[in-house]
User: What shape does this take?
Amino acid sequence: MFGPTPLRDIFLVAGFELREMVRSRRAALFTALYLLVAAMGSYFFVWILTHVEPPRPPPRRSVFSASARPDPVVVNSDKPEEKRLFERGSPFRMIVTGSINEQAAVDFLVAQSPITLFHFLISLSMLPLVIMITSSESIAQEHQTRGVRFIGMRTGRAEFVIGKLLGQGATIAGMTLLAGGVCIAVAWWKLGDFEFFPALGSILLFWPRLLAYCIAFLGLAGLCSMSSTSTVASRTFSLVGVVFLWIMNHFAEFYQSGVPADDPHARAWHFIQFFSPFSHQNDLWYPEFSRYGYAMGSLVLLAVIYVALGLAFYRKRDL
Amino acid sequence: MSLPASHSGSALRLDGIRKNYGSLRALDGLSLEVPRGSIFGLVGPNGAGKTTTFAIMCGLLQPDSGAVSVLGGGPFSPRTMRGRLTALPQDAALGRDLTVTDLLTYLGRLQGIPRGQIRSEVARILKLVDLADRAQSRAKTLSHGMLRRVGIGQAFLGNPELVLLDEPTNGLDPRQAHEIRQFIATQRGHRAVVISSHNLHEIETICDRMALIDHGRLVRAGTISEITGQNEEVCITLGAGPAPLELLKAALAPDIVAWEEAARTFRISYRSNAGHEAEEVIGAALRVLLENGARISTVERGQSLERAFLELPNTASPPAL
Assistant: This one.
């Protein structure tokens, strides 16, 4: 019905990439590993919930009125077992909300299903590495095997690259949803009073944010892959790149924390920090769209910048 | 650099192509022309620049200078010439986890074959390369020869006007190689096919034109009969017995007769013109030889391509930059 168009080519390449990923032993291994960590993590999380922090009678608000961070959430014993994880003094609550300084954000997180926050936390921690290992080879491998020469005569290079990344993105989107499902399933199995639908709602609430975060790393993996002719070089670039961006972000944070906000170097570091996806991670936890939306937009923009940089080189290179 | 309109009739034309890999000059002003509908052989020793030439023809490599005209339309671009040029690249591997049908479907669809036609087209190609029974096999389960046949098959998907085949029968068993050669020969007149091969017998058998390149330069180009001297030379090999060289020289003068003792072969070089064709030279030579008791083993017109290849001047060192 339609003749060949760039968009049609992108979807053809993406569909093929997706099918290859599904059948690839390597991708299956890393997906299984990610799901295993999600399942085991969820299991231990629930185990801690039911064994280490048994239900306690609700504390009176007045008792804690002198607390530095007053908790507006009314805690009572009628809450499902899972939600009691957020009882005052819970180590998990302190971990999740420890870096959040705003009461509204704390309230927002406390209102979510803890198992989904655990899924979000574990995904944000693991996925950059998983993406760098699995996706960075995608284009470089085509060069190593020269398989790209079959494709290079049939479609444009930009269509090929974007299609490949789209296929990888679809795989990651499915993988993260599946991991969320695994976490929910474990919690449902182990907790008698687990609330399924609120948990599912929370997963779907955080999933687009997680995807935006993944897209930025996918763009970085694409840049490394486009710049390499072997899978080893591409994987090495990716891992070095992600470690570099992580260090750069933390160094920038460290520097800015010790100087006044109007310090010119602090502003420069703030600007440099923007180019690290890690710098936008924290804002993804917040409830205001202006904040997490900005972070998501920045992450997608970073992906576009990484891919555009890679394409500028890739369009001229020999296949 | 644009080419004159008079060359728009050729399937492919290279004009003064140069390509360097760092300090190594792979192509040094290579020029050649492939007529439409011809089977064209590209021959040269290892490192002569054949694969680089192929990659430049397909648009996979950018030349440092020079002009490429594919099907009369400038350098190949997949956006504007999709499906009109296809190729079997050397040593390129197809995806290993998908089935043969999936791979061919993917490549065919990318090439622009409509969804409604792709199944029948893939079935046609699988039959052509004798892999219909392996249609659902994953690529990684196929032998090297089978993968080579899939590679050849993908080059004939759709209706390309120009097909480039780099070592097409490499790794095939003799029967498969023969079938592929026969198939390629049937393409004459329908599309231009350029074959790069070390198998000179193959080039001689199926090509009607060829070019010899060495160190990135064109050494010689022309029809197979021009290069092998099929209208310029007759070779007669004798068995044990007399070899009347002087009598033969006298009978065939002014044609030049040379005797190669080791091969016990007379090489008779003659100038082809009206009334003095190969048949006449062969007749005269055999008459003299038989009358003088020589035992004739073989008679050949021209020399083999292999011999022509070996006799070409050898450029000893690669060109300096």
